[in-house]
């Protein structure tokens, strides 16, 4: 038993949407007092660090409505019910970039916002990109622009806050640690 564990005494579902669910939990704290926790339930997601044969990072630019601006990110997407993360990774790579791979390596997984959400993101790496013969369709509400950038260009985009999400910043640091210049 975790010494900081909070015991849930009641869960109230607030919203059940296409991507997320929102609930409020009444909890008993370790000191016996009570509190409420607003929790976002998410099915999980994947992201792919994809390198071209020229050591360029494959990225996509897309508009992020919650931020009211476009970001440059590594290819990513949410898990479908019952889908294995590596299958999601290949599907998202194909849909968003026009590439596939037969060599996908698991890097790590991490919680994106553990203070209020249970979303876990599985991160994969490939440097064996194969252009698709026939491009896959994006989701009907998804609009992206493909980019292939050097590490230096990506670092400039981080400084300019064009890359401004944790998974992509993590990806660039991962590539630096692997010695990519």
TrEMBL record:
Domain Nudix hydrolase per the UniProt entry, residue ranges: 40-171
Keywords (A to Z) from UniProt: Hydrolase
Cofactor requirement: Mg(2+)
Residue runs in coiled coils: none
GO BP annotations, alphabetical order: nucleoside phosphate metabolic process; ribose phosphate metabolic process
Segments passing through the bilayer: none
Xref: InterPro entries: Nudix_hydrolase, NUDIX_hydrolase-like_dom_sf, NUDIX_hydrolase_CS, NUDIX_hydrolase_dom
SUPFAM superfamilies: Nudix
One Gene Ontology molecular-function label: pyrophosphatase activity
Pfam families linked to this entry: NUDIX
Gene Ontology cellular component terms for the protein in this record: cytosol
Family under the similarity heading: Belongs to the Nudix hydrolase family.
UniProt name for this protein: NUDIX hydrolase
């Amino acid at each position: 038993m975790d010494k900081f564990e909070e015991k849930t005494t009641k869960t109230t579902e607030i919203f059940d949407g296409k991507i997320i669910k929102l609930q409020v939990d009444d909890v008993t704290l370790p000191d016996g007092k009570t509190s409420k926790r607003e929790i976002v339930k998410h099915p999980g997601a994947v992201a792919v660090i994809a390198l071209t044969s020229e050591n360029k990072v494959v990225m996509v630019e897309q508009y992020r409505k919650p931020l009211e601006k476009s970001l440059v990110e590594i290819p990513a997407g949410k898990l479908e019910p019952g889908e294995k993360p590596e299958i999601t990774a290949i599907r998202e790579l194909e849909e968003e970039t026009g590439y596939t791979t037969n060599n996908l390596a698991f890097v790590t997984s991490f919680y994106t916002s553990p203070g209020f959400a249970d979303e876990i993101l599985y991160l994969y790496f490939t440097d064996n990109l194969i252009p698709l013969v026939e491009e896959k369709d994006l989701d009907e509400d998804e609009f992206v622009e493909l980019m292939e950038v050097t590490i230096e260009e990506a670092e400039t985009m981080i400084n300019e806050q064009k890359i401004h999400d944790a998974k992509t910043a993590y990806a660039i640091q991962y590539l630096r640690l692997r010695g990519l210049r």
